[in-house]
Amino acid sequence: MSEAYAIIAEKAGGPEVLVKKPLDLSKMKPEAGQVLLRHQAIGLNFIDIYHRSGLYKQDFPANLGCEAAGVIEAVGDKVKGFKAGDRVAIFTSKPGAYATHRIVDASELVALPDDISAETAAAVLLKGMTSWMLAEKCLAHAAIEGEAPKVMVLAAAGGVGSLLIPWLKYLGVTVFAHTSTEEKPAKVKANGADYVTTLPYSDLPDWVRKQNHGEGVHAVLDSVGADSWKSSIASLRKKGLWVVYGNASGPVPALSPLELSKAGSIYTSRPRLIDYVDNSVDLTTASQKLFALLRKNILKVEINQRFPLTEVAKAHQLLESRKTTGSTVLIP
Fold first, then answer.
1. SUPFAM superfamilies, alphabetically (predicted)?
2. Among candidate residues 94, 28, 36, the one with its CA nearest the CA of residue 67
3. Angle at the Cα of 307 (from 39 to 42), degrees rounded to 5?
4. pTM, entire model
5. 5-125+277-330 carries CATH number 3.40.630.10
6. What are the two backbone dihedrals, phi and then psi, of residue 176, each rounded to the nearest 5 degrees?
7. Which of 56, 84, 232, 297 is the most exposed place for a label (fewest CB within 10 A)?
C-alpha cells in the first residue's frame, strides 16, 4: 500500500510552515454518515493561503485544503447514495484536503460523471461553483434595467477569473477585465473578455468610462481586496453592485456606509460559497450546471500547474506571488 500522509500548517506563517505528517489508515474508520475518501487530485485555492497565513482565524497546527476528488474507500452507517468505489469530488468549509486520505461527511460529496476526471474536478469544483455563485446568484441583485449587463472582473487571469469570464459571456454580459501583468491580457482576451487592461487600480475608473461612453459598470467582481477596493467602488455607476469575494492583497479595511452613499448609492456583498450550497439540492444544482457548461465547451479547464502534494510549499509561493494562470492541482 502506498504511503498515507497529510500536509499541515504547524503555525500561522509563510509556506515554510507546511510539514508532512503520516496518517494511520487502520484508525481512519468512517462513522455514521461519513466516508473514507482516497484522494486522486487536490485543488489549490487562494483560501488555502488565507488559512495558512492566519488571515482566516483557526487553531494550529491546522489542516489545509478545501477541494479534492477521488474514490470512496469505505462508507459508514446511514450513508445514502454512495458506496465504496464511487468516484466523487468535495468542496468543504472544513479544511483538510491536503492529504492522501480523508474522512468526510457524505452530504458534502458530489458524484463525478464518467466524463469528468479527478484532476478536472479538483481543478474546477470550487472555482467553478464560485463562478456560478457570482454570475448567476450575486448579479441577480445588481440594478440592471433595460440593457445588457456590464461587469468588471479583477484578477481576470486567475483560477476563478478564467471560468467566470466565459460564464458571464454565456449569460450575455459585457466584460471589462483587469489583470496584473503584461503577459496575461492576451489570454484574458482569448477567454472572452471584451475589454482588458493592466493599468494601475487607481486608473480603472477613468478607463472603464472611456470604454463605456462615460458610464461606470453595473457590477465589479473583486477578489483583490485591500489594493483595489477604492477603484472598484469608483468604477461603478449609480446603484451599482460591488461584490468582494476574495482578499488576494489583504482584507478591505473597515468601511463606513457613507462611502457607499457618496459613490452613488451603491450596494455591496461579501458572499461565501458555502452559504449558497449549504444543502444537497443547491450543491447538486451548482455542480450539474458546472459540468453541463464543461461538456458544452463553454468552460474550459486550464490546469497550467501540477505539483506533487509534497511540493505544496512551492505551489503556495507561486500562487501567492500571482505567477500562476488558470488552475493548479496537487497530486498525492
1. GroES-like, NAD(P)-binding Rossmann-fold domains
2. 94
3. 25
4. 0.85
5. no
6. -100, 130
7. 297
